[in-house]
Design brief:
This protein is an alpha/beta fold. 25% of the residues lie in helices and 24% in strands.
Length: 213
Amino acid sequence: MSHLRITEIFYSLQGESSSVGFPTLFIRLTGCPLRCGYCDTIYAFRGGEWMALPDILQQVADHQPRYITVTGGEPLAQRECLELLIQLCNANYKVSLETSGAVDVSAVDPRVVKVMDIKTPGSDEVEQNLFENLEYLSPVDQVKFVICDEADYLWSKQQLEQRYLTDRCEVLFSPALGRQDATELADWIIRDHLQVRFQIQLHKYLWGDVAGK
């Protein structure tokens, strides 16, 4: 029987991505191989509770969600995450996966919407980008850049152009809270006519840094 180490399962509003604002059930898996400088889920690096897959699915069903986001940490750091995603899709939930872009996504169920980071220099983990993952993205997937400063913005803009990212899927630019002014980033996007979706972390504006929101 498959088991996964779970930090938390909670029901809230989606704060990011193209489904922002929708009531969503979050399954946060424990563990991550990266240490991004702006990480807001450090508490998910360790600990957690081992749960059998049927118990996870039952807890999910108890919330009666329509949308589910599997997140972390880095959820794909646990091999059994792939089976969890399959089972959630088989149960007819709308499923998204938040992943760092540093772990192979080729085996992720194609029914899952992948929301994949590309780590900027300001993250301190830019060397961990696995750009081969771009080949496994579909038009329903999303690539996210968390922008820490103007240098990050210029670097991200370069990646956008060199890797033809907007031809692959939707691209999200998000300001790192406390490091990049949101209005300034919005102004840069408008000035440069970038075909990206500007986003802020809605949940932080509603509830701050409260865990499980």
